[in-house]
Amino acid sequence: GPAFIKRLNETNGCYSIFTTDGGDLIDFIIGNSQTGTNDMIFVKLITNDHIHVDRVGTNRDGVEIDVPNPCGSIFIMTQEERWSRFTNHPRLLGSGLLGRNNPAIIPPLEKGYLEEEGEELTIDEETQTLWDSMIESFLAFDGEIQLTLSKEAAEKRRILNNEWQGTVGIHQENYDVSDIVHRFVSECTKRAALFHVCDHWQQLGDI
Predict the structure, then answer these.
(1) Which residue among 56, 117, 186, 207 is least packed, with the fewest CB closer than 10 Å?
(2) For 8-46, how does the pLDDT look when each residue is reduced to its tens digit (9 = 90+)?
(3) From its phi and psi, is residue 70 left (phi > 0), alpha (psi between -120 and 50) or beta?
(4) pTM for this prediction
(5) Are 98 and 92 in contact (CB under 8 A)?
(6) What is the per-residue DSSP string for 23-35?
(7) Which helix (H) or strand (E) holds 56?
(8) How far is 201 from 194, CA to CA, in rounded Å?
(9) CA angle 86–90–93, rounded 5-degree value
(10) DSSP reduced 3-state for 105
């Protein structure tokens, strides 16, 4: 906990976690009955929400840490039972983290096989160069991009949200599920915005 927050401060809030052994991270997020969950620091990291900690450390040398604009991404691989424990843990049912994950579950019979769909682009030198140029353009851009939904997109977002809410059957006892559905729809909108920016990466100042 404290070590991770200090590391965030050292990197100005920029942090990525990529691991093929995500069990330890899941255990850390779940926490325990004494410390509670550790999910909010990750919610703030991936949603660029202000992180402020009055004191990091248990002695007089503890320091105040302020990260106004964090930015991060998390990619983990873990066993199905660990993932099930994470998504069904009672202390995380109301967590915004559950509604912001994008799980990809591989059926047991397909493990070890490469899934391909016809006419997929290969990662050749030209494609890699184009990708590198786009990322470098993002890193070099110091302006501000504001995106708003068109009337058509806003209506589709409303319809999607209503369809999902109707599917889960919202009742008072399913409030947590309703919250996760709402956040999922918001994440779909954010991903659409990201794809739009990527499609116009050579004209970032004109978006």
Answers:
(1) 117
(2) 888 888 888 888 888 888 888 888 767 678 888 888 888
(3) beta
(4) 0.56
(5) yes
(6) HHHHHHHH-BTTT
(7) strand 51-56
(8) 10
(9) 75
(10) coil
